[in-house]
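quick one, two chains, predict together pls
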Amino acid sequence: MILFRTPLAFLPDTSQQPVPSGASRKREGKDIAMAQVSFILNGSAKTVTVDSIKTPLLWVLRDVIGLTGTKYGCGVEICGACTVMVNGRPEKSCDTTIGEVAGANIMTIEGLKSDPLGARLQKAWLQYQVPQCGFCQSGMLMAAYGRLKAGESVSSTANGIPNLCQCGTFQRVKDAIMAIPTIA
Amino acid sequence: MRATSAKHNSLVLDRRSFLAGAAATLFVPVTLTVTARSAAAAATGVGAYIRVGDDNTVTLITGQTEMGQGIGSGLAQIMAEELMLDWAQVRFEHAPVLPATYGLPGWGVQLTGGSTSTMMWYTPLRTASAKAAQRLRAAAALTHGGTQDQWSLAVGGKLTHPTYGQKTFASVLGQIANTSEPASVSFAGTKRIVGQPVRRLDLAGKVDGSAVFGMDVMVPGMVFASVIHCPTITGKVKSCPTTASGALAVVNLGDAVAVVAKNTWLAMRIAQSLQSKVTWSLPANPALLDSTALATTAQALQDQATPPNLKAYESAGVPDDKLGLLDATYKTPFLAHACMEVLNATVSVTRTNGTVTFVELWLPTQGQSFIPATVRSVPGLSTLTDAQIKVNSMLCGGGFGRKIEQDYVLQAVKIAAAVGKPVKLTWSRPQDFKNDKYRPCASMHVRMGADANGIKAMVYRNISASINFQHGSNPEDTGAVAGAVKLPYSIANRRIEFAPLPTGVPLGYWRSVGESYNTFAVESAIDELALKLGQDPIDYRLRMLTNDQRATRLLQTLKAAPGYTSMNAARRGVAFLKGFNSYVALAVEIALDTAGMIKVTKAHYVIDCGVVINPNAVEAQMQGGLVHGIYSALYNRVTFVNGVPQVQNFSNYRVLRPRDMPQVSVSILEGDPTTAMPGGIGEAGVPCVAPAIANAYHRLRGTRVRELPFHPGATMSEG
């Protein structure tokens, strides 16, 4: 079976009926505000319909939109597996609500290659054979990208990114980041 | 092999047959006939393991699970060597569940664990690939002309003939079925790919987000589920709501309550909120689930002359009257697996006229062989044949032994059967920590008599939680003493004994298993002796390893390595392991921060793993094993208070961040090319870490730490 796929090859049938933005509907006596939220996702305009604007961005990306490159690791902003770029800053999407990113510019791992610095990071990651199981690496790359993009030095970034990796790829993560100046 | 899905839905692997399988005669379990296909489809197989694409890509189909250790690529290297492929045309893919074909050769069980994959597949896969090469040549003759002898393989998946020129593998596939199984093979004898640091095949997808892990599977029409378990481990559901606000369904699973919702977050949130509305039947004997009580019992069993089920697993000479230089008890805790990818499984149940006719699963698993039985254990599914159960093995975001278990699989099948839609079950991280199959806790009483020339006598008693004993299948547990038996050291008088520590805490296989605690005790004890006797720790070991040429070479290499000599000897410690069919020596240098917490500053490994398939992979496994060993030794333990696990998330289960990484170097010793086999690397990097740190710490502080972790109660460092 397919172990590697083109992103968006599979989309869930969300069975959600679109309603006008801001409308609400009653269900079991509770008001649940369905909402449409729009933002820029990997360079393209995107609008999602969600039951609750409190839904974390992580789960909108994964379960609603079907972009599964961003991962769930802890849900409490410790591990960094969920890191995405929001308005030019690395953010933990497990604790960022979809409501909070209305109108924002979001980049996920799937969009990283569109930026030359991102592409260089991915090239470095391959050259140094960084990933083992790979589950943490989306977040690791986005965290490194966010710091480097903001002008942080490679050595500060290599030591500063907080991401967990239970396979222990840190030696090569650091080697790959330190090599960035030499990678075209 | 016995594999029982027993009381706690935990797996019991009979370690003896596990190891015996590795030593058994290896045979090629496959007949190289093309997989039956419809008349319209073109033949693409050359045997069950090799598929050739129209684009001349060649895919290895393997029953071994890629979970970060690089096995998919490593086995593909072996295939590629015999078929003279360009690495650029090689792929790998996980096989369906078909243990007779894809199970470990000589054993017939399709699972990944115990560092057995490369060792057990090396000869069978080389053989199957070499036979495939011969059949391709025969098929070329049938397809294009000439005789088999006139055709030869050329690099890049090509067949060449002096007259007919160069043809592709793809062009001859139609005639493979008309060729016969060669009686014998000769291997390519080249090292173009095996032994080279070729780039792993799965990396591209892991840097661009396209790799599909179990948790990433998307099936049309799917819904999402999560579970809560009893806060007291092994408790069962007594009563639970049948609905919940915002949920599509609530399902009583017996050992847990599942909530099904439109997305995973909702499912997790609603499940968590149900905790106050579920009543649980608590386990009968909480003392068997309490860390303080267990520690007291373990000591009592150590102190008893003959505790229940005591068995000596190794005896030689008469040790008891030659002891006296060391009397120490080493203790190690329960540990969690904490894979980055939590437990998850996606299941779709198809019904025809109300009867289940097909079950399809997509999941991260190390235990393919056990899944059909798991499916059949669900009421209403018992008569499903293997053909009615389809298992898609996805990439694992870490396994470490946790994903061989069937508990999460069973839950997902039950939920899917109940809701009638495809369901993706994802555990929350707290549930993953609180409902693990934990690395057994152990108490190891070591008594030794020794002099400057070596250890004269050793009595070693391991009292530990035992998987076998817990499931009542077998009070013996050879796995519990792995790392203490078959030591390569010359110790003329010894007795290695084990008695189980009864406990209700669910147990499982944790990366390096018995060695993860016995090596801590053994290598700490030897170091304590060396210090008492004023001996260099490497020289002292060498004196007891004169009969083992590989061990001798390994330790001599460590002693001379710049990675070793450049360390500050006053805060340096070494440890040695012969295990998993490999030899490993590790030196670490440590420092203390201002709060007195240990930091590993440098590490140097020397490893002899026999045949090296990919030196880059060997290095990676040592680097990763080091990290795993460091955070486990420094920070980790899971304790239970009357059955309630005292762990919540990474918040109080501290692991490393990039800034914690020591400088690590690895040197690889090649095995004898005429005799060597590939030894294990996936687990071999872990066991030496804890004792090496303890040994460094003793030199630095003058005190010996015999109980892990070094820093209990550590919470996660700042992000």
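Chain B is about 25% helix and 20% strand.
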